[in-house]
Design brief:
The chain has about 350 residues and is α+β, with helices and mostly antiparallel strands. It has 7 helices and 20 strands. Strands 13, 14, 15, 16, 17, 18, 19 and 20 form an 8-stranded antiparallel β-sheet that branches. It has a 7-stranded antiparallel β-sheet with strand order 3-4-5-9-8-7-6. The chain has a 3-stranded antiparallel β-sheet with strand order 1-2-10.
């Protein structure tokens, strides 16, 4: 993420103070284990009674699970809040948080994605005459996304920063399982030796290819059953390229997209990146594109990644709307692309 600064995790609170003035809360909102959590908070803060009538989890917006009210102050009370929202599609916690904060009119001061399942931010928000500063953390656990917010008037925030950091760092869902994924993942195969995973919601198409090559198409469909993103994963046996120097491997996969009617408007230079042995020659490329036959005309991004394995060249491409055309949609598509890259397995790599 572009804006990053160190956000305290409460590490500066002395051990004796922790034992004396803090308590581990074990809460089960609405009596549901799936909404339960543990978190360390000040023992002087008061947990307010929930006003919601039931614990139905929504996918359209977060549901308030708890509010902890701090000491009274002339400028307003600091508070801690825990929220939860249901998810149906894979998305990185940092991208979800960025989208959520942007749509709610918050000013992002700093945002850091620690992993696809955990992100942290510091934001500013104006509520009437009050200027607030908020520490907010998004924690993905299966198909549930927990939000932990530490809220205080801007001029009081530093006083409670360590306390908010401790709450964020100590937060754990009670029902956290071994599988953190939102969706089920399906394992796909290329040339019988390469495997990778992708969210099961993506529609698979496996066209016939010449010997030594293999290609898999995955499509993300909208509610009307129309493709809104295309993932292509290609393998090329190195026996086919032996002795051939200067091959533009990303161009092989780009050609598969242009065959389908995609027109490139801008092509960036290749960028090399390091890969673990025995992989080599990591190359990425970003292109701008559009689809003339598409019902809705939008700027598209084409992302290409190429790596060499001992027996194959492996290329992965994603055609998706540009972030400014629909950030949440882009983030869902990009997460599927990253899952493919994260889960590649080749026999020579895993021995």
């Amino acid at each position: 993420m572009a804006n990053v600064e160190h956000l305290t995790l409460g590490e500066s609170i002395p051990a004796q103070t922790l034992k004396k003035d803090f308590v581990k809360v074990e809460d089960k909102p609405f009596g549901q284990v799936g909404l339960g959590y543990t978190m360390v908070v000040s023992n002087s803060w008061i947990q307010l009674k929930l006003k919601a009538k039931d614990g139905r989890l929504l996918v359209a917006q977060p549901k308030l699970l708890a509010t902890y009210l701090g000491p009274k102050d002339d400028n307003g009370n600091p508070m801690l809040q825990v929220w939860c929202q249901g998810l149906v599609r894979e998305i990185a916690a940092g991208d979800w948080l960025k989208d959520f904060l942007t749509k709610n009119g918050s000013v992002i001061l700093s945002l850091e994605a620690h992993s696809p399942y955990l992100a942290d931010a510091l934001v500013g928000r104006q509520e009437g005459p009050a200027s607030l500063k908020i520490r907010i953390s998004a924690h993905l656990s299966g198909n549930r996304l927990f939000l932990i917010q530490g809220i205080a008037p801007e001029d009081l925030f530093d006083k409670y920063a360590d306390m908010f950091g401790l709450a964020v760092s100590s937060f754990k869902p009670t029902a956290a399982g071994k599988n953190p994924h939102v969706e089920l993942w399906q394992t796909h195969h290329l040339d019988k030796v390469i495997t990778f995973n992708a969210p099961m919601s993506w529609l698979e198409r496996h066209p016939k290819c010449p010997p030594g090559m293999d290609l898999l198409d995955l499509y993300n469909l909208n509610a009307r059953g129309e493709p809104i993103a295309n993932l292509k994963v290609m393998s090329v046996s190195r026996k086919l390229t032996k002795g051939k120097k200067g091959l533009d491997l990303p161009a092989l996969l780009i050609a598969e997209f242009t065959k389908a009617g995609v027109q490139l408007t801008e092509i960036a230079d290749d960028e090399s990146f390091s890969v673990p042995k025995p992989l080599s020659n990591g190359v990425s490329k970003i292109c701008k594109a559009h689809e003339p036959k598409a019902k809705v005309k939008r700027l598209q991004n084409l992302l290409i990644v190429s790596v060499d394995a001992p027996t194959h060249h492996v290329l992965t491409g994603l055609l998706t709307c540009a972030p400014n055309e629909g950030f949440y949609e882009y983030a869902v598509n990009r997460r599927a692309f990253d899952i493919v890259l994260e889960t590649f397995k080749l026999p020579e790599v895993n021995r």
